[in-house]
Amino acid sequence: MTVANNHTFDYNEEGMNDTIKAIESVDGLEWGGTDKDVILEKDDVKIGLICDTIWGEWEVDKIIERIDRLEESTDIQVVYFHGGEEAYHTEEYWKVQACHELVKAGADLIVGAHPHVLQPLETYRGVHIVYSIGNFCFGGNTYPENRTVVYQETFSFDKNTKKIVGRHENIIPFYVFTGDTNNFQPAPIDDEFIAGQVTDFMYRKSASLF
Questions:
Q1: Residue 145 CA neighbour count, 13 Å, CB half
Q2: 109-113 and 127-133 as β-strands: parallel, antiparallel, unpaired?
Q3: Share of the chain above pLDDT 70, in %
Q4: Angle, alpha carbons 120-153-50 (nearest 5°)
Q5: Whose CA is closest to 121, among 169, 74, 87, 88?
């Protein structure tokens, strides 16, 4: 779970501390933030997760430092960032440049959040970038845009060198809510036409989600 976002200190230091205590009370739930990396392990592969904010290209250097540090102890470096303009389905130029710099620095996957709507997938130098994952379960208003995805990435490794030899993404279209208004109950989109609209948008085959 990330606590790196623009609402982190809405309730000041006390609210932040209460949130961290609540997270840590759940067995097995890890959290990351602007000054805390997360290292996960699966099948002898170590995954470094960097949670941070990006509001402009000037914030890239701090994340590159974190990538460099994690490269010494992990096999995969994932950046999950919060930033960008709200309600735009097209990624900003500065955000593209920032993510490209992170890929050049060694990031193996980049996923963004904050716009509250989906922004599409790009593959840059073989690395996948999802500029905005949109909302999932969202309590901010009664009628959030009702399209989102679950994004999955599978990495293949050379057993001897521990180097990445392949990667494959899986995009699962979801509704953000399933009632007449927001009921905080996401669900997979089972309508093939609507699901196709979402995947076409994410793969840049269509400029519209609807």
A1: 19
A2: parallel
A3: 100
A4: 85
A5: 169
The alpha carbon of residue 77 and the mean position of all alpha carbons in its chain are separated, in whole angstroms, by 13
69: closest CA among 55, 50, 86?
50
The encoded tokens of residue 193 equal 């036409």
| pLDDT the model gives residue 114 | 97
Tokens representing 116? 């509250």
pTM for the model stands at 0.96
| Burial annotation 9-31 (CB, 10 A radius, 16+ → b, else e) | eeeeeeeeeebeeeeeeeeeeeb
Candidates 147, 149, 155; CA nearest to 128 is 155
Taking the domains of the chain in order of start, what are their residue ranges? 12-202
Distance separating alpha carbons of residues 50 and 60, to the nearest angstrom? 12
State the pLDDT confidence band at 159, using cuts at 50, 70 and 90: confident
* Eight-class DSSP state of 159: T
